[in-house]
Design goal:
It is elongated, with a radius of gyration of 23 Å. A hairpin with a 6-residue loop joins strand 2 and strand 3. The protein has two domains: about 150 residues, 2-Layer Sandwich (D-amino Acid Aminotransferase, Chain A, domain 1); about 80 residues, 2-Layer Sandwich (Mth169, Chain: A), CATH 3.30.1280.10. It has eight helices and 17 strands. With about 325 residues, it is of the alpha+beta class. Strands 8, 9, 10, 11, 12, 13 and 14 form a seven-stranded antiparallel beta sheet that branches. Strands 1-2-3-7-6 form a five-stranded antiparallel beta sheet, with helices on one face. The chain binds uridine-5'-diphosphate. Uridine-5'-diphosphate (UDP) binds next to helix 2, strand 12 and strand 14.
């Protein structure tokens, strides 16, 4: 098989039977601290592969697009071939790891709302944290795509957190990677395993790579325990949550906007002399039955053109933030 890419814990091969599929093989190596700490544990690749398979299938079942197609023999997954976005998306529910270190925040502090952060995927730069503004200025990923990745990451956070909660476990943080398939669909890619997540039990004991990072236990037995726990969970009991997407419709500039003129006059009469102009548009809160996908975004654009806006006099945009 032709090797396309070799990472720290996985190898990607071309699928000899199809140009738009790849075979991802999980290895037994583990690295931490930007590659400073390295080791290998027999069976680790196969357990990480089992967990990734289970979680990708679970998320697909909840309506999230992933690259996963099927399990192959050994620690291998057959996946859709994608172009990976050069950004790692990290979601945090509780302070730990680099967040605690960066801001001097005590590990274990729970956030009021999950936090999504971006890191540039570039080993030579040591994967630095980056703002959405900088990412779009550099031209690495567009704002629309980043907003979409953020929404999907928050959905993944909900579904993973709920599944783990069933078993008395807490999802602390995780890292996701996304890619674009050959038919222009954005999908969750890479892996979802204890190598890329932090999970604590009810005594704040880690069931993830922190065992290796901090040298505090036997990695294989911890990974196996997590796999067994996930196998005992009931994905069908995790409720699908509705999602809201906003469609904003605005009058195009230069087009007369009578409701805006009426509002402006009324504001002037009330004494708001600083108002120069008012343009009145519309906001539609579209409530979806399932997580946002590329197909749903495409549908929203068609809905806009067909019904929600008048393409001659109005401009429309889908707001995901
Ligand atoms: N993570 C990852 N790969 C990376 C960096 C982070 O999978 O290259 C995961 C990590 O396992 C944790 C989350 O992303 O679950 C947040 O990691 P953090 O930024 O705290 O960095 P760390 O201290 O783990 O290096």
């Amino acid at each position: 098989m032709e090797l396309i890419h070799e990472g720290k814990a996985k190898r990607v091969f071309a699928d000899p039977d199809s140009n738009n599929r790849v075979i991802i093989e999980f290895s037994d190596s583990v690295t931490a601290g930007d590659g400073a700490k390295k080791d290998a544990f027999p069976d680790k690749g196969s357990i990480a592969c089992d967990i990734s398979e289970l979680l990708f299938s679970y998320l697909e079942g909840k309506g999230i697009d992933t690259h996963y197609i099927k399990r192959l023999k050994g620690p291998q997954l057959l996946c859709k071939k994608v172009t990976i976005f050069p950004v790692e998306v990290v979601c945090r529910n509780i302070a730990a790891g680099s967040f605690s270190k960066r801001y001097g925040v005590e590990k274990g502090i729970k956030f009021e709302k999950p936090l999504v952060e971006f890191f540039v995927k570039d080993d030579s730069l040591h994967d630095p944290l980056i703002t959405m503004g900088a990412l779009t200025r550099i031209g690495l990923v567009s704002r629309d795509v980043l907003q979409f990745l953020t929404r999907v990451t928050l959905s993944v956070n909900y579904y993973l957190s709920e599944l783990l909660k069933q078993q008395g476990l807490t999802l602390i943080d995780f890292k996701l990677e996304f890619g674009m398939t050959e038919d222009n669909t954005i999908v969750l890619a890479d892996e979802i395993s204890p190598d890329t997540m932090r999970i604590w039990d009810n005594k704040s004991t880690s069931l993830d790579k922190d065992v290796f990072r901090e040298g505090k236990g036997d990695l294989i037995s911890v990974y196996k325990k997590l796999l067994d726990t996930l196998r005992a969970s009931k994905p069908e009991d995790v409720e699908i949550v509705k999602e809201v997407v906003q469609v904003i419709v605005e009058p195009k500039s230069g087009i007369k906007n009578p409701p805006g003129e009426v509002t402006k006059k009324a504001l002037m009469r009330l004494g708001f002399a600083e108002v120069d102009d008012v343009r009145v548009g519309k906001v539609f809160n579209i409530i979806l039955k399932k997580p946002i996908t590329t197909e749903i975004l495409n549908h929203l654009n068609i809905m806009n053109v067909k019904l929600l806006s008048n393409p001659i006099s109005e401009k429309h945009k889908v707001r995901l933030e």
